[in-house]
Amino acid sequence: MKLFRITRRGYVLLWALLAQLVLCRSGVFAGDGTKACLLSPETASERKVLDRLEPLAFKNLTVESKKDEDSYTYVFQLCGDAGGVPGAGVIQKNMKTPEKPTVTNIGSYKSTKAIGGSDWVMLIYENGDKYDNHCKQEARKAIIMISCSKNTDVDVLEVILEDKERESDCFYLFELDSSAVCPPVVSRLSAGSIILIIIFCLVAVYLIGGFLYQRLIVGAKGMEQFPNYAFWVEVGNLTADGCDFVCRSRNRDEAPAYRGVTTDALEEEPEERDDHLLPM
Length: 280
Hints:
The protein is an alpha+beta fold. It contains 4 helices and 8 strands; from the N terminus they run H-H-E-E-E-E-E-E-E-E-H-H. An 8-stranded mixed beta sheet has the order 1-2-3-4-5-6-8-7. Strand 1 (about 60-65) and strand 2 (about 70-75) form a beta hairpin. The longest helix is centred in the last third of the chain and has 28 residues, at about 190-220. Residues about 20-30 have low confidence and may be disordered.
């Protein structure tokens, strides 16, 4: 019995094929990011707003909702097949029969609108499945309000309401927090701060590099390890002399108000005799 032998190159190709299958299965190649969303009509401003949501692509977000005795599960995916339903951006699963739930497409990413502000984006999926008895049997529509949250990549999807009691223009409203729609952080460092940081870095390099050179190359010890020690000592002395010259108010040309008394003046003088002044 002969065994088939696979060359080394064959192993590489086999592993590459398996990796692609796994990635496709996990949804990495399920779409082309936000480019899979079809805007109606296509405008540069709405496409720019939609591109801000690129970090949310290929993520299925699920939320459960209970109303009276009914239980529903909603699945949202940005510009991708939510829950594996082709063309559906948001789906609703009626969980009355969990073994075989009824799936309803409530918004298609093939008909998308995107409205954005400085820290929010409103995503609208239209042309879902039609209502049976509400809203003049018009197509369902899902609105996802995405707000800025700097501390959260993607928060939990929340169901706000299902407005189907009006005659027309009914919608499902969802809310989601994400850092993807937050405005970019602008650096607050002024030009002066940047200059100070550069000066500090240069001084640190000078001190550390000079210390290592004096220590390892020159072999200096003690304070002599400080780079250009003699120069800085002289600078300190000159600075002190300058401060003394500028800050002292005394006139340097004026003679001192007092003179020191020498030790010679303190020596005891010989006693003078006054006897010759007395009358005889």
